[in-house]
Design goal:
This protein has seven helices and no strands. It is mainly α and 260 residues long. Helix 4 (139-180) packs antiparallel against helix 7 (216-259). The model is unreliable at 181-189 (pLDDT under 50).
Length: 260
């Protein structure tokens, strides 16, 4: 009987140990599954956040480009206007056309207006500094965005030549014209444009100043402006082409991001 009881107790102990091990195994497995699930959730959340940040980066970049559109168009229109005004004045200067009521304003604009493209670039600079592989699938679009600042700089350098022409040659000439027309010369070149405006507002002086368009020195200044404006227009067209392609590409990229 004792042996039978001992055998039954041993069987019961083994059964209890087996059940205990099974429970421990199940508990351990449950903990492991919970940990792996948590890791998977964290990884999925990280991927979701990264995707959202990538999209936000593209949206900021597109918004900045679209915000610069009005200024880019304005600059292009002004360069074209200054070029055409210069051509009209040269036709008067060489006797191919007579002055019109617009000629005084054209002369003031050609001799005094300074135009340059100064876009916002904060989002673009951050994008280029933190660009991640795969953010934009198109290699062509990535190359366009990377090369865009150089295109803008080329236009800016051309426009700086126009500003230098005004400061170094046109303004000194205006000061000389004021003295020659028996007007008080301005104290500094910063007043040159005000002097030119006064000249064009007085009928007698305006006639004299318009007559100066036929002088070789003035024709040379206008010719220099026309040449530089033509070169600026070429640079502008290059910037505008890249600008439009980048905007179109970003819209496509965002459309794909939204559908994925």
């Amino acid at each position: 009987v004792r042996k039978t009881l001992q055998a039954e107790n041993m069987s019961a102990d083994r059964l209890f140990s087996a059940q205990r091990l099974a429970r421990l195994a199940i508990q351990s497995l449950a903990v492991l599954v919970s940990i792996l699930t948590a890791f998977a959730i964290d990884a999925g959340w990280d991927r979701y956040q990264a995707a959202q940040e990538e999209r936000a980066s593209l949206e900021r970049l597109l918004a900045e480009f679209e915000g610069n559109r009005a200024e880019l168009d304005f600059v292009g229109q002004r360069h074209l206007m200054l070029h055409d005004y210069g051509i009209a004045l040269l036709e008067v200067g060489y006797g191919l056309a007579q002055p019109t009521d617009e000629s005084p304003e054209q002369l003031r604009t050609v001799l005094g207006m300074s135009v340059y493209f100064d876009p916002s670039t904060g989002a673009l600079n951050r994008f280029l500094a933190n660009q991640q592989p795969g953010l934009i699938a198109s290699p062509e679009l990535r190359d366009r965005i990377a090369g865009y600042p150089a295109k803008v700089d080329e236009l800016w350098q051309q426009e700086r030549m126009l500003r230098d022409l005004i400061a170094a040659r046109i303004e000194p000439h205006i000061i000389g014209e004021a003295d020659r027309l028996l007007l008080l010369p301005p104290a500094t070149s910063s007043e040159a444009l005000q002097t030119l405006r006064r000249l064009l507002e007085q009928p007698d002086d305006r006639a004299r100043l318009l007559a100066s368009v036929r002088e070789q020195d003035v024709r040379n200044l206008i010719s220099s402006r026309v040449i530089l404006e033509a070169q600026s227009l070429l640079k502008y067209e290059q910037v505008e082409t890249e600008f439009s392609e980048i905007v179109a590409g970003l819209r496509v990229a965002l459309g794909r991001a939204g559908s994925s």
